[in-house]
Design a protein that fits this description.
By secondary structure, the chain is mostly beta strands. It contains four helices and 13 strands. Strands 1, 2, 3, 4, 5, 6, 7, 8, 9, 10, 11, 12 and 13 form a 13-stranded antiparallel sheet that branches. A hairpin with a 2-residue loop joins strand 3 and strand 4. The chain starts with a strand and ends with a strand.
């Protein structure tokens, strides 16, 4: 797993175990949720658990009926349709959780239920703080911005996304975009050990494009070392 939406716990928690729970909605309907831990890995001083989650929910379905005798069309909704959501997850117990997409954040609640008392909620990343962390001379890494999503500009270009080599170095747009609120950034991070190409969004999504052979522990270490200090639980 090299990408996901981050969730943060409000308390420390130990490694979790798989479980399934069923809720009786009415006489004829049951809804089931399942959290499946598929692998627990201990390496480089951290514990990483990966797995998948699924939950059944009631959904509505539009029904269209045609009455040929009256030339009438009627539209109604059924509320008893069962829909199943699915996601993969990765977690470092007590530190963070990632799910494969925004639609998978339901797993935060299931993971919370697998702990003794922790509540996991979606994270929000302070992108300006993240960028500033690479501007200090004491950092071993250097970072070049290849993508910036911005908003809140006055004028015709109120929001947008810019791509390029060193976006902030652009003589026309660089300084302007640097000062605007940001909802997405992409960085090329260079260090003695390796080069990393990644992207992060204000809404908590992080993806590592390169190295393409990152495993779950390496991705987790990147989140722990580079991202978490700039993230907080969203309201």
């Amino acid at each position: 797993m090299r990408a996901g939406v981050i969730g943060l716990p409000d308390e420390d928690f130990d490694p979790i175990e798989s479980y399934t729970e069923t809720t009786q909605v009415d006489e004829h309907t049951e809804l089931t949720a399942c959290l499946e831990v598929r692998q627990t890995t201990e390496r480089d001083g951290i514990t990483v658990q990966t797995g998948r989650a699924a939950i059944q929910e009631l959904d509505t379905e539009e029904q269209v009926n045609i009455d040929p005798e009256t030339d009438n069309i009627s539209v109604s909704e059924r509320v008893d349709v069962v829909k199943t959501k699915y996601t993969e997850f990765l977690l470092v117990p007590g530190s963070f959780v990632t799910v494969s997409a925004g639609s998978g954040t339901f797993a935060f609640q299931l993971i919370s239920g697998a702990t003794t008392s922790a509540t996991v909620r979606r994270a929000e990343i302070d992108l300006d703080s993240f960028l500033r962390s690479y501007e200090g001379a004491s950092r071993a890494e250097e970072a070049e911005t290849w993508q910036v999503g911005f908003y809140g500009n006055t004028g015709n270009a109120e929001k947008g996304t810019i791509y390029g080599d060193g976006v902030f170095d652009d003589t026309e747009l660089g300084s302007v975009v640097h000062q605007l609120p940001k909802n997405q950034i992409g960085l090329n991070i260079q260090s003695k050990e390796e080069d990393i190409k990644m992207t992060a969004s204000k809404s908590g999504y992080v993806e590592v494009y390169q190295p393409s052979n990152y495993d779950s522990v390496e991705f987790s270490q990147f989140i722990l070392d580079q991202v978490l200090q700039h993230a907080e639980m969203s309201l």
